[in-house]
Amino acid sequence: MTTAIVLLDTERDRVNDVAEALVRLDGVSEVHSVAGRYDLVAILRVAESDDLATLVTEHVRHIEGITHSETLIGFRVHSRHDLERLFSVGMERSGAEE
Predict the structure, then answer these.
(1) How far is CA 12 from CA 48, 66, 96, in A?
(2) What is the pLDDT of residue 98?
(3) So what's the pLDDT on residue 90?
(4) With a threshold of 0.85, does the pTM exceed it?
(5) In angstroms, rounded to a whole number, what is the distance separating the alpha carbons of residues 10 and 14?
(6) Does residue 64 sit within a domain?
(7) Is residue 82 situated within a structural domain?
(8) Is residue 88 included in any domain, yes or no?
(9) Residue 38: enclosing H or E segment and its boundaries?
(10) Is 4:22 a contact under the CB 8 Å cutoff?
(11) Phi/psi of residue 56, nearest 5 degrees
(12) CB-based contacts of 57-64 (< 8 A; 24+ apart in sequence)
């Protein structure tokens, strides 16, 4: 699984619209409105890095109201929860694909 954290700035008064558009995309597991430097933080989880490239460049970038974004690619997760197992449900590959 590939995880990315996307930090987003939006046009004034578009935070909720952008958040709702993001959360409708396959691969976006959650979107947080936040205080601080950015308006939104989106957590993306996909099976392969190519899926991430498609999600970011063909879907996230085309959402109206986003003025700036920064994408951070996760290398390793440190958590008390088994996030890999939790978020990989339904992403198993059949033997024919490997």
Answers:
(1) 34, 10, 48
(2) 45
(3) 61
(4) no
(5) 6
(6) yes
(7) no
(8) no
(9) none
(10) no
(11) -70, -50
(12) 59/25, 60/6, 60/22, 60/25, 60/28, 63/18, 63/21, 63/22, 64/14, 64/17, 64/18, 64/21
Nearest to 4 by CA among 48, 38, 66, 68: 48
Number of domains in the chain: 1
Residue 98 forms part of a structural domain: no
pLDDT value of residue 41 = 98
Q: What is the pLDDT of residue 93?
A: 54
Does the structure show a pLDDT above 70 at 86?
A: no
At position 10, the amino acid (one-letter code) is T
* Residues 4/72, Cβ–Cβ less than 8 Å: yes
CATH assignment at residue 43: 3.30.70.920
Domain hosting residue 20, numbered range: 2-77
Q: pLDDT tens, 34-65?
A: 999 999 999 999 999 999 999 999 999 999 99
Q: What is the mean pLDDT of the chain?
A: 88
